Amino acid sequence: MIKRTLIPLLMLSCSSAFAAELTSMETRWLTAGLSVINYAKQELRLPVDITVQPQAHANDVPVALGYHDGRCKLVLSLRGNAHAEDILASVPQARRALMIEAMFAHEIAHCWRYAQGAWHQTPSGFAQGGTQPAQTLQQTRREEGFADLVALAWTQQRHPQHYADVAAWMRQGRAPAAAATNAAAAVDTHATMAWLQLAPTGAAFNSRLPLFDQAGSLWRQGLANGE
């Protein structure tokens, strides 16, 4: 089982299949995301469960969010996942926790949208067009755009002195690969640069608004621009 001392610290609700102790990487990631987890559970009262996979599957991202039976499932897939190392390879060791925290904020934004009953729903006044596959792609990309903006708003609120670092890292991760074709870019559900470019600095967010309203204001601006 997980070390008993980590249970109150990390407030984990792990799957019964996970019977080994946390690895040092899992502990680092969960500790980096702890403030986001606490915010989600204690302030937002979101129904969040955390699952640590004993072995990552092919194409698993390090941290992801699902929704089942009215609860958000925050899934860490770090064991045997080369992408977990690669995603932070360009970040100095001292700043990696900031990027991990931003990733957790991104996933909690998905949880909030699910809990609000707003998943894949667009505010009134913003039409969806095209075939059903095209609409689904657009809806998914819009959710990723919203979550990216929440991650940036969180960073501005909690770590304003490091906003530029986190924003630059996120833009780097979302930028189309130099060799990518236009066709590949067109089906990228994480092509969120149109929203990231709306927040080049933390000043783009209205600090007088609640966190999700800060992100939502810029998100709707992106929708108005045709995203």
Structure notes:
With 227 residues, the chain is mainly α. The chain is globular. It has two domains: 1-89, no CATH class; 120-227, no CATH class. Strand 2 (63-68) and strand 3 (71-76) form a beta hairpin. Strands 1-3-2 form a three-stranded mixed sheet, covered by helices on one side. Helix 5 (96-115) crosses helix 6 (132-158), helix 6 (132-158) runs antiparallel to helix 7 (163-174) and helix 6 (132-158) crosses helix 10. The chain is built from ten helices and three strands; from the N terminus they run H-H-H-E-E-E-H-H-H-H-H-H-H. The N and C termini lie far apart (45 Å). Residues 1-19 form the signal peptide. This is Plant Basic Secretory Protein. Keywords: Signal.
What's the domain count?
2
Helix content: 40-55%
Q: Which H/E pattern describes the elements?
A: HHHEEEHHHHHHH
- End-to-end distance: 45 Å
How does the overall form come out from the CA principal axes?
Answer: globular
Number of helical stretches of at least 4 residues: 10
Strand tally is: 3
Compute the CA-based radius of gyration. Answer: 17 Å
Going across the major beta sheet, what is the strand order? 1-3-2
Q: What class do helices, strands and sheet pairing give?
A: mainly alpha
What average pLDDT do the residues reach?
86
- Largest sheet composition: 3 strands, mixed
**Beta content:** 5-15%
Sequence stretches where pLDDT stays below 50 over 5 or more residues: 1-19, 178-186
